[in-house]
Design brief:
mainly alpha; single chain; 2 strands; 148 residues; elongated; Histone, subunit A
């Protein structure tokens, strides 16, 4: 059954003639063009779709999969860059370097869990001093005795 036989006539106005290739190179008509404009993403949805097809994950890639994946990648990138920008500002720097990315990811609990197995080259380590190695505070510094 063709697509025009399944849909009512007024629904055909909203479908574009954009052709999408599946993993085997076959073409099919979709109604993705409207969704792309409504998504308002900065990440390239077409490139994400191309990489999904090239990766041989599945024979067919769902229509919304590329939009959803591009949105997730854009959100994660914005989150990491915001935290790295804060780390750069704390160090009084104008440019984000790998050290700032390392500090941002390792100080955030969720990002550290997501990127736990990732090694960032030139990222350094987190500053950490164990409590046993810190100097002990004495009582004489806290209590002042008045002498007359």
């Amino acid at each position: 059954m063709r697509q025009s036989e399944r849909l009512p006539r007024n629904a055909l106005k909203h479908i574009s003639n954009k052709r999408i290739h599946n993993a085997h190179g076959f073409r099919r008509n979709t109604s993705i063009r409207m969704n792309l404009f409504q998504a308002d993403l900065q990440f390239p949805v077409g490139r994400v779709h191309h990489l999904l097809c090239k990766g041989n994950y599945m024979e067919w890639i769902g229509a919304g999969a590329r939009i959803y994946l591009a949105a997730v990648l854009e959100y994660l990138t914005a989150e990491v860059l915001e935290l790295a920008g804060n780390a750069a500002r704390d160090n009084k720097k104008m440019r984000i370097i790998l050290r700032h990315l390392q500090l941002a990811i390792r100080n955030d609990e969720e990002l550290n869990k997501l990127l736990g197995g990732v090694t960032i080259a030139q990222g350094g380590v987190l500053p950490n001093i164990q409590a046993v190695l810190l100097p002990k505070k004495t009582e004489s510094h806290h209590h002042k005795v008045q002498c007359k």
